């Protein structure tokens, strides 16, 4: 038995010849909020489905609170609230009928929190799912995932289709769940959202977990845009030789570059010149994210 909320050990799922996920090793501690980032088709949903016990691993294993996700999926389901990426239910049912159905399966009669969630999310719970917009569909999905106040929330792209106001409400609800001790595992394309909710992130690409990072470290080590203006022309060569320097352009007294990593050496080198202006800007979160997908030259250690 494990103390961790989630353990994946060499978790692998192949769909016939197609790779779903490959050798995923991961631990999420109780009470932690862990973000799972990756591009389309990277393997996020496959991992979440394996954690819910919906998929039998090809090899390796997954555990939730010490229960094997495949062999003990009934136990796992008791502790988990799950929002699948493609949340669907019987489309003839209304939101409330879905929630009551899920409540029976979970043997959880108390719908007081479901009513609070529905109200705060302004969910349309009285019409059949087939009549609902994508956002309203998603809200029903969130209510059914959260109403029993589970120990672990497994949320696959939870804010898809939500308008900005509802996204905020959802992020507040997740923060409140965490304050009550819940563990959160959230997949997303949106680094901003992950930054708001999570302290650690796993980056998945081409079926493999390529990095697990403290989100603060990730952002600290992220690319910076640097622009130096000196009183006299600057030789770009020593700047180009700095560790993590990219796209170094010298134009007389102005030098621009991008820097992946620490700024200390750059500042010391710049200080050898008479500086008129120095601008160091952090890359956007989007750029940080892209840098992990290998579209720029800086790679994960
Ligand atoms: N039922 C399936 N049959 C065959 N291949 C599948 C199946 N489900 C997923 N895959 C493949 O497994 C890989 C991982 O897919 P997965 O849905 O887990 O990615 P994802 O990171 O969740 O993507 P997205 O962000 O687009 O939802 C993809 O190459 C996908 O084509």
Automatic annotation (TrEMBL):
Residues 6-231 form the ABC transporter domain. Keywords: Antibiotic resistance, ATP-binding, Nucleotide-binding, Transport. It is found in: Cell membrane. Pfam families: ABC_tran. It comes from the Bacteria. The keyword rRNA-binding does not apply. It is a peripheral membrane protein. One of its GO terms (molecular function) is ATP binding. Its main location: membrane. Belongs to the ABC transporter superfamily. PANTHER family: ABC TRANSPORTER ATP-BINDING PROTEIN (PTHR42711), ABC TRANSPORTER ATP-BINDING PROTEIN NATA (PTHR42711:SF5). This is ABC transporter ATP-binding protein. It comes from Svornostia abyssi.
